[in-house]
Design brief:
Helices cover 81% and strands 0% of the residues. The chain contains five helices and no strands. α2 crosses α5, α3 runs antiparallel to α4 and α4 packs antiparallel against α5. Keywords: Membrane, Transmembrane, Transmembrane helix.
Length: 147
């Protein structure tokens, strides 16, 4: 729940920021000189990109949470039995062992979104966020085509 609250708070702050930046862009355009209009248009592009990025990220999180809920209902969520360091971080060797199992599971069933979801969790535990995101995107895409 804490993660949802902090995500919503961050998104709200970003939306306020986008509105402020957008209003500055409009003011620059209203000034009417070639330089201010050029800067105004450039400034307006930033909130557009930011809103798009925020929307895509929110969509990704919502879809991943839907898959997690479905997998949980099936009893297929991966169990977190990883060893931890005194700091609370996951032990790298432990994460690598689980990753090897998840990778083999995914290679055996490459069209199963459940295996890709579990692989994404293993990537995340191994601190490989870009690959975790790609694996989760694959799981989401496979789930959508299975529907």
């Amino acid at each position: 729940m804490r993660a949802k609250i902090s995500y919503a708070l961050t998104a709200a702050v970003l939306v306020v920021y986008f509105v402020l930046v957008g209003s500055r862009g409009v003011l620059l355009i209203k000034a009417g000189t070639l330089l201010t209009v050029t800067f105004g248009v450039a400034v307006l592009i930033l909130p557009v990109i930011g809103v798009w990025f925020l929307w895509k990220n929110t969509q990704f999180v919502r879809d991943a949470n839907r898959l997690a809920a479905e997998l949980d209902a099936e009893g297929g969520l991966p169990v977190d039995n990883l060893r931890r360091l005194p700091s609370g971080r996951i032990d790298r060797e432990s994460a690598d062992e689980v990753f090897a199992l998840r990778k083999a599971e995914t290679e055996d069933a490459p069209d199963d979104w459940r295996s890709w979801f579990r692989l994404a969790v293993a990537y995340h535990d191994a601190r490989d966020t870009p690959r975790a995101r790609k694996a989760m995107q694959r799981a989401i895409a496979l789930r959508k085509t299975a529907s």
